[in-house]
Amino acid sequence: MWRRKVSAMLLLAGLAVPYSAVSAQLIESEPTYSVTDFDWVDQDRSRPVPARLYWPTAATPEMSVPLVVFSHGIGGSREGYSYLGKHWSAQGVASLHVQHVGSDEELWRGNPFRMVDRLQAAARETEAIERAADVRFALDQMLSDEMGGRGVAVNRQRLVIAGHSYGANTTLLTIGAQVVREGQTIDYLDSRFSAAVLISAPPFYGESDVATVLNNVSIPTIHVTATDDVIQIPGYHSGIEDRIDIFDAITSPNKFLAVFRGGSHSIFTDRTLTGGRALNAKVKVATADLALAFFDLVFEGDGEALAEWQITWQSILARAPEPMSHDSAQGDSHDSHWTSDELLIASMNFM
């Protein structure tokens, strides 16, 4: 197997204790990982691209290590979503967390009366484009000769792009989402990625036809949200219906949706209290392991971990997962497909 699965007993044990304790249990029982920060600069754009790498320390250049490139939400940083980086790297999957300097933690600093202006500037289309370019540059750096043995060890056939909120929007741009401006198509597809994790994906503001925007997305995707997943910043409001619209608009049948009951938009960040302490802890562990189960299905054709996941976490889902039927894929460039009884979906009838 390309990674060691977390045992069902350990996951179930985590249901009764705070996330900090669960995290400690997970890390102690798994291979160790290292954390390395990079202060890269894209000279072509004169733009810093800081990044943090979670790397399985047991990995060697002779090994083949899957890599996730992660994009944070608005106001985030490379230090965020550490629970994902730690958990994935402890399971043998490297995780590179990219920081986007035009929409990162600096937004919260400075004159508080100008914060609304800073947030709105960060959400502009120009910054969305720069974020997609950040991802491409960071992956280039990770695969370059400068990374030595780590770069050599990365499995080029198992590259995953992931993101939360604004980072999910960045992820969609990276895997084929297109918008037309003044007769020109904005296209930032990076075909090196072969799977995507979309957490709390926001809408494409100003776009009335999301299906057209996402028409070219063809790689397998997993979508994660919660019934109380609401984005609310000045000038922008987005609820779970937007996450569902994004999921529905992707025509590739190789997609999966998980909806947690309750929660919040920021429950998927490193904040430990939002959405409720108990649920917060469970959702974090469930989200981290859901991604790994999805990778098993995409890269190994093995749906066992995904089936186990739905049983383990059924109690916090909006509704018990059920089979999703779909037509056979046409024109998909990937070799493997899974059957409808392997494609599980948490029902959208959560009201």
Automatic annotation (TrEMBL):
GO terms for molecular function: 1-alkyl-2-acetylglycerophosphocholine esterase activity. InterPro entries: AB_hydrolase_fold (IPR029058). It comes from the Bacteria. Keywords: Hydrolase, Lipid degradation, Lipid metabolism, Signal. GO terms for biological process: lipid catabolic process. Residues 1-23 form the signal peptide. This is 1-alkyl-2-acetylglycerophosphocholine esterase.
